[in-house]
Specification:
The protein is an alpha+beta fold and about 240 residues long. It has helices at about 1-35, 90-100, 130-140, 160-170, 175-185, 195-205, 230-240, and strands spanning about 45-50, 55-60, 65-70, 75, 80, 85-90, 110-115, 120-125, 145-150, 215, 220-225. The strands form three sheets. Strands 7-9-8-10-11 form a five-stranded mixed β-sheet. A four-stranded antiparallel β-sheet has the order 1-2-3-4, with helices on both faces. Strands 5-6 form a two-stranded antiparallel ribbon. The termini are far apart.
Length: about 240
């Protein structure tokens, strides 16, 4: 019996080794063929098998997800959906890749705005000249019991930089921000150390935050774009599970 067990274990190890070697061979082939045939494709950071036999997931340096056959003869762009479990595998993977560890956020560089008891947490990256941000702020005002960490990220030109500086340097930045975004009250000119805003821009570049508003929930989920109060509530509820 022990001998039989050892034989089975050895066979299993050999099968795993062969499977690993085949996967590595496919990975090398995919990288070689795609780099030669589509030289403009962003760097392939990772290649992993999918649940679909013979199809591999390609994670690019841009965090985009593509799929390929084992030879790199076909490149597939789109969603891979598990019809049995009704899961969008691509969407789940992209959400995981775009997540930002909430503990990694430099909260000292944010304006803290508390609604109600402030028990829930939400980080938001916004530009003061962003129309979508203003729409989002009106919806966010309807959400209670949340602490909002607002990161000023002026990406829409010099006017955005000036307004961001005036808000950050205001006597009460939270009120200055609310008045500007919800009531169209231009913040008074102000001067102070604005290194925090520069750090926010650096943080955005590091984590590929390319648009405003961008939300980060307490569980790390990132949501690009303006969402209404119902979806904000759902985001906060999911993050607290």
């Amino acid at each position: 019996m022990p001998h039989t067990f050892r034989s089975l274990a050895a066979a299993l190890l050999m099968a795993l080794s062969l499977s690993s070697a085949m996967a590595q061979g496919h990975e090398a082939t995919i990288r070689k063929n795609l780099s030669e045939r589509i030289p403009q494709i962003p760097k392939i950071e990772e290649i992993t098998p999918t649940p679909l036999a013979g199809i591999y997931e390609l994670r690019l340096s841009t965090n985009e997800i593509y799929y390929s056959d084992a030879a790199g003869n076909y490149l597939i762009q789109g969603n891979l959906i598990d019809t049995k479990s009704k899961r969008n595998i691509t969407e789940e993977r992209e959400s995981k890749l775009s997540a930002i560890d909430f503990s990694a956020l430099p909260l000292k560089d944010a304006i803290t705005i508390v609604h109600g008891n402030g028990k829930r947490k939400l980080a938001v990256f916004e530009d003061p000249n962003c129309g979508y941000c203003k729409r989002f702020e009106r919806d966010l005002a309807k959400v209670d019991n949340v602490t909002v960490y607002l990161f000023l990220m002026p990406v829409l030109g010099p006017g955005s930089v000036e307004k961001s500086r005036n808000v950050w340097c205001a006597k009460d930045p939270a009120i200055a921000w609310k008045d500007m975004m919800q009531k169209d009250v231009t913040p008074a000119p102000a001067q102070c150390n604005t290194a925090a805003i520069d750090r926010n821009l650096d943080f955005g570049r590091k984590y590929k935050i390319t648009g405003t508003p961008t939300l980060v929930a307490q569980d790390g989920t990132r949501v690009p774009g303006a969402i209404d109060s119902t979806k904000i509530e759902r985001l906060l509820a999911d993050a607290s599970k």
